[in-house]
Amino acid sequence: MEIFTEIYTGNSKEQLKKIPNNSVDLIVTSPPYADQRKSTYGGIHHDEYVDWFLPISEQLFRVLKPTGTFILNIKEKVVEGERSTYVMELIIEMRKQGWLWTEEFIWHKKNCYPGKWPNRFRDAWERLLQFNKNRKFNMYQEEVMVPMGEWANSILKKLSETDKIRDNSKVGSGFGKNISNWLDRDKAYPTNVLHLATECNNKNHSAAFPEELPEWFIKLFTKENDTVLDPFMGSGTTLVVANRMRRNSIGIDIIPEYCEMVKKQLQPIELYLFEPKAEYEKIKP
Ligand SMILES: C[S@@+](CC[C@H](N)C(=O)[O-])C[C@H]1O[C@@H](n2cnc3c(N)ncnc32)[C@H](O)[C@@H]1O
User: Fold this and answer.
1) Are residues 200 and 241 in the same domain?
2) Where does the DNA methylase N-4/N-6 domain lie (predicted)?
């Protein structure tokens, strides 16, 4: 089956209205953080961030399929020596919109810059918030399994007797674990911490994702021919990876130069461009 890419140039708040209801399987995005990068694409004051984002998350809720997932990469900044609370406020307001806050992944930035601050250490992680519309959503856990490695040889081989029988949950949740079940396996499920270096290649964008980041979530939450959306696509990392993995992709960015740049990187596939002047233009591969 042919896969497609759609690129919309403009403000996500408006451009998202052109995307049909319940048509997207996965949204992976990193919006501008509050007050960040004013010089390149405008910062939103941290007090106004929630009001700015909610009309966009309302549209994202509409376009996401009931089985779909929304991964939001965001981190609160430090304001006058304190962490700002806008991410927490945003989570609370998004829940009122109907979103379920199902999980939080941590992106551990393996290569963060060294530095010294008077009252904190260097910031080596960011949040990847997971939201869903339903408690049941598509998730292909086997696709992201990791090698057992040395863990199996060291810790698992020294198991106590209680570890070898099913250790039922003390709170009666019905969940339990039998660690010895994992002894002979080659692969284990990963944790919710992703250890990835920040993007080092010069991608002509100051805040590009490392490719492994959208790739991991695309594997976990989609199959071939599913549709992935990035409403703040920047250099288009999400689209390029989705394209390579044979997923349909949709990207939006307010800066026309970024849209041009993404267009040039994509493989020759069916590409639709939505620009302010030419509303619709089909580019032949
Ligand atoms: C943090 S960057 C995304 C980087 C991207 N993940 C990548 O890998 O290159 C955020 C992007 O959002 C775009 N942007 C900011 N406000 C926007 C809006 N209201 N609608 C659409 N795009 C917007 C900026 O131009 C910028 O490229």
Assistant:
1) yes
2) 24-264
Number of domain units in the chain: 2
Which of 74, 213, 217, 253 has most ligand 1 atoms within 8 Å of CB, for mutation? 253
Q: Are residues 102 and 36 in the same domain?
A: yes
Are residues 163 and 102 both part of a single domain? no
Across 46-191, where does the E strand assignment appear? 64-74, 78-79, 82-83, 100-109, 125-132, 146-147, 167-168, 176-177, 187-188
Residues 74-116 have pLDDT tens digits of 988 888 888 899 999 999 999 999 999 999 999 999 887 778 8
**Residues with C-beta less than 6 Å from any ligand 1 atom:** 11-12, 30-32, 41, 205, 207-209, 232, 234-235, 237, 252-255, 258
Q: Indicate whether 138 and 156 sit together in one domain.
A: no
Task: Check whether residue 59 and residue 194 sit in a common domain.
Answer: yes
Domain of 89 in residue numbering reads as: 4-145+189-283
